[in-house]
Amino acid sequence: MIKQFTKNDKAAIAKWINERKGNDDPKIIDQVKEIIDTVIAKGDQALLDYTKAFDHVNLSSLRVSEEELNTAYQSVDQEFIQYMEEAKANIIFYHEAQKKQGFELTKENGIYLGQRITPLQRVGVYVPGGRAAYPSSVLMNVLPARIAGVEEIIMVTPPDKEGGIDPYIAAAAKIAGVDQIYKVGGAQAVAALAYGTQSIPRVDKIIGPGNIFVATAKKLVYGQVDIDMIAGPSEILVIADADANPRYVAADLLSQAEHDPMASAILLTTDHTLAQRVIEQLRIQSKQLLKQDIVKESLANYGAVMVLDTLEECFEISNELAPEHLELMLKEPKQYLDQVRNAGSIFLGYMTCESIGDYFGGTNHVLPTGGTARFYSALNVDNFVKKSSYLYWSEEALKKDGKKIIHIAEHEHLDAHANAVKVRLEHE
């Protein structure tokens, strides 16, 4: 059901997990390129044609009207609305602290230089439909953009079979403050956001998860627009000591295994007894889950339990794998924070399950996967701003240091650069 590694398998576990990444499929790349080119050429008509072909829905209009949105919102149970509003407050509370101010520095001779922080003007959010419709992701993607000061947020999501959208997605969009919603999905939706159509305005950045066609489209339009990241299969890594509850550990590993047969769920521990009890709990609890077939395949493919001699060894392997979710089920978890170099989001203590962060805690659940936590961060307010530098030099300052600039420019054989300084020094 789940692989068991020993301390002698340290190198093997990283190689094994990295096998999940695979290579881009040339056929899918070609298909997505064709879709993008068609959307660029035909605009809205291409979107309507692809929606009919792929979603089997005939639409007369792509935009979700205010009436449609309100009707969908009112159809959702009030408890869900209340809890999403509370989650929104927690997300805002956390992300408000991420906001930064620009700065200005002064030097002698009238020099000053600084940095301006400017929000992006327009952001596009892709929201999957069907079984992968997650209203919580709407809050996680939209609210940091709102806090950053983004002027306009456009959402795209596939229509359902009746030509509407998932009411819970609609409710989350209304709660988060999305400006416009369009009923279109797949690579064609990404192309529309990147290049614009008659109905859908061109955006500066595209965020949000999707299937392989959506992910491929985001890769291909990067440069025309910015993107958040390319999300891979979900991951959880738990570092647990002897006092950890095996029921909790197993439950948390299963919480990620249910996402996808390619999801990774790994336990690192120094206690043999805990390891065996967790394996037993995985057998027991997986039988009770709705997605037990996916869970069993996920654990068989990329589930692992590894017993090591020390916690330091556990952190060494964890940092190598750079997991999306890292749980420290340790008696004094905060004292080990400095040992974590690479992780998307860190959950401290026996009671802090990953689900808290997914839905309600306030930290963002849009996280780097596939080892990219070595260089990527969780989605945050900084992802929605630009930082521009500015510089002012007085005539006095240029007289003092102009020759130094000329010397460096001439060394690089850029005479025009040098001349731009010379003409200012020679005008006297």
Account of the protein in words:
With 428 residues, the chain is α/β, with parallel strands linked by helices. The protein folds into three domains: 3-22 and 232-375, Nitrogenase molybdenum iron protein domain (Rossmann fold, 3-Layer(aba) Sandwich), CATH 3.40.50; 43-227, Rossmann fold, CATH 3.40.50.1980; 393-425, no CATH class. The protein is 45% helix and 16% strand. The chain is built from 16 helices and 14 strands. The protein has helices spanning 10-18, 26-42, 44-55, 66-74, 78-96, 135-148, 167-176, 186-195, 212-221, 246-257, 272-286, 292-302, 311-321, 354-359, 395-411, 415-425; strands at 3-5, 103-106, 112-119, 122-126, 152-157, 180-183, 205-207, 226-227, 235-240, 264-269, 303-307, 325-329, 345-348, 385-392. The strands form three sheets. It has a six-stranded parallel β-sheet with strand order 1-11-10-9-12-13, with helices on both faces. A hairpin with a 5-residue loop joins β2 (103-106) and β3 (112-119). α4 (66-74) crosses α7 and α8 (186-195) runs parallel beside α9. It is globular. It starts with a strand and ends with a helix.
